[in-house]
Amino acid sequence: MNKKKIAILIIFILILSIGAGVWYFLKNGLIISRMKDRVAIKETNTSHGGCLETGEVAEYEIFKKLEKVSVAKIIVRNIDTHHEISSFEIELPIPDHYHPVELHKCHIYTTKSFGYDYKSKRALPDYRLELWGYQYDGDGGSVVYLSGPVSGSGYGTDFRVDPSETYVVLEKSYLGNPDYALVIKSLSTKEDALVLPLKNIIDRYPSLGGSFGMNQWTKDGRYFWANIFDGANVLAFLRIEKGTWKYDVFPAPKGTMGGDALNAELGYITYDTGASWTGDVEFDKKIKEDWRAQGKKVSFYVYDLPTKSEKLLATIDDPIWHFQPQWISDHELQYTLPDGEKKIFRVE
């Protein structure tokens, strides 16, 4: 190879090297700039008091972080203009949890883990899980120790805090254990206000079995609603009165599923008489064909748990149709028919 060709080859390699270097630093510079901008915005937007003020509303968005758990971005907005007033981020230790965050007047509640290696995805010997409360200025602290290598642990990851932020509902132990129970605990003293073992309920209602599920507190915080479910089927609802800690058990009508809508203020639940959705396209198609060949109809109801009265809202011939029930107010239930029409049922 002559000297001229060698010189050209060297120049070509140098150009490639310089180009790659420029591309690398520009790429990384852009990433660093974005990170700096994001941090600056984050720092600017965290200037807020501990509690929500009059005319403010809070919301959250969840997104993924590379090599880490999910992150919840807490946003405070003006309730009228929807303008963002402040925001900050909280890491969530349980990806895709169905109830990851609760927003209240003075705190945001979520779980927080310690001693977990996210790269290897394994718990370390000192792993523990706690319920934390964050104020709207971003300051946070432990509320309840949930689980880990410390004695007295053994709560699940689900929780519900009452509107006054006085009590939290937890699930103790696990199904099959004698001490499996629904627990309502004081947030200030950490003492148990109520321990309701599942065994106590089954002793009264032998036909019930399954696990505890949590629904919600009423808006005034007087009652907490929970349920007992077995797979996708909801078998009964519990209504617990705060203070007296007395509870009522309301058997659910047959056909009540996890996707049905509870109205905690009125004690209403939706249900239908259709078949369960299987998730298998061919099997679901076969169910539809069999039901229609037999001329079967599906009825959709709203049911009053305390009085056991019900009202028929719709009749269709699709056995696996989900009516997508949703209480859009204390007295208005929205549901959807197979043709896409949305209907509103109003409780008188």
Description:
This protein is of the alpha+beta class. It has a domain at 259-348. 18% of the residues lie in helices and 43% in strands. The protein has three helices and 22 strands. The protein has helices at residues 3-45, 198-204, 281-293; strands spanning 56-64, 70-78, 84-92, 102-103, 108-117, 122-134, 140-147, 155-161, 167-172, 181-186, 192-197, 211-217, 223-230, 233-241, 247-251, 262-263, 268-272, 298-304, 309-316, 326-329, 332-336, 342-346. The strands form six sheets. The protein has a four-stranded antiparallel sheet, with no helix packed on it. Strands 8-9-10-11 form a four-stranded antiparallel sheet. The chain has a four-stranded antiparallel sheet with strand order 12-13-14-15, with no helix packed on it. The radius of gyration is 27 Å and the shape is globular. Mean pLDDT is 85; it is low at 2-44.
**Class by alpha and beta content:** alpha+beta
| Weakly predicted, low-confidence segments | 2-44
Radius of gyration: 27 Å
Please list the strands of the largest sheet in the order they lie side by side.
Answer: 4-5-6-7
Elements, N to C (H/E): HEEEEEEEEEEEHEEEEEEHEEEEE
Q: What level of helicity do the residues show?
A: 10-25%
What is the rounded distance between the termini? 95 Å
Strand tally: 22
> Overall 3D geometry?
globular
So how many helices? Answer: 3
Strand content: 35-45%
The averaged pLDDT comes out at: 85
The major β-sheet equals: 4 strands, antiparallel
Main features:
348 residues; 3 helices; 18% helix; disordered N terminus
